[in-house]
User: Fold this.
Amino acid sequence: MRRNQRNSRKRKNTISDDTKKITSILLKIVFILLAVFLVVMVFNIVNNWVKYHSITEQYLETSSNIEENTNELDDTTQNTNEDTTFHLTAIGDIMCHNTQYMDAYNSDTGKYDFSYVFEDIEYYIKNSNITVANLETTFAGEDVGYSNYPRFNTPDALAYNLKKLGVDVVSTAGNHSLDYGFDGLSRTIDVLNKADISHVGTYQTQEERDTIVFKYVKGIKIAFLNYAYGTNGITIPSDKSYCINLIDEELIKNDIETAKSQEADIIVASVHWGTEYSTVPNGTQNELADFLFQNGVNIILGTHPHVLQKMEKRTVTLEDGSTQDGFIIYSLGNFISDQNADNTRTSIILDLQITKHTDESVTIDNVSYTPIYMYKDSSSTTKKMKLLDINKTISLYEAGSDTSIGESMYTFLKGELTKISEILNS
Assistant:
């Protein structure tokens, strides 16, 4: 009996020892597999990080022709012993639908912040020498209520976010300028002044209307003009006819002559014109473009159609027989909006490389652009809106570094690249 008990204990001890050995082996295997898994995970993370930053650096290098912004807008001195080159950037209609300002609202702070919309494309604007945009809304104030189409009124925060982004000048003459009457127009100007953004096209006084807006870049004096086709049928106050520049050839010619007389080196005209949603300029646009060039305008930036239209570089023959470089984009499309019609969410960030030579002549040396898309992430509950750098987004998706847009959007964006090129070069 005792012998059987001893044998039983030996067998139990043997089984226990075997179990411990097996458990130990299994634990070692688990630890090895876990270690291998972690190594693979780290490798993938590092590899994707390297791919992401490599692609990002690639696009920054591609845009390295845009010089660092050194706050030269107030520099009125120029070295006349050598050619001076700078970059002018232009972006399209800044619209703000209710879906946009609702998306930008922070319920915790009770404030609006649109800055997240620009994170993917801000480099191109912040690092330009001067950036021009078109304002397609008013800042009429919270008291009258923020609003959507057909009368736009946007939180003031957008103006400050635009300044932080690097926008220097906005054209304000457009069909929505008087959405909230002269008071709304006037308050919009006040907000832009407080945000330190220069503006042209709408005015609070006759004196302001008769004063040409100039900006200095590296000592080069640039005049900005702006005119609109109308105000959506809203009557301009009879005692304040100066408050908005409407398209009038006599008025335009006088302004151009004033800019010349004040020794403008370059004249940039922003014109609110054309047929909405048409990617082809109409006859009125073509005729007015010829008029502007022949009277001395160097650069024409078209706004209002909400879609891109073609761009051209010209050699312009003036009345005295001399020639100069001219550039026109008939419509820059929407910069930001929440429109959904065809082509309304794609646009470009236009970059013009301009040189003033020692003989006083001005040349437009290079025209380039960055295709962008106003993306709306329907799966997100906040911060749905985001401007995408289309080329960069496609490259990151193809590298597997960022596939968050999904295959359908990836395919769509590739198609949009083709359409953008076809429209601009039509």
About this structure: The chain has one domain: 63-424. The two ends are 105 Å apart (CA to CA). Confidence is low (pLDDT under 50) at residues 62-72. The longest helix spans residues 2-62.
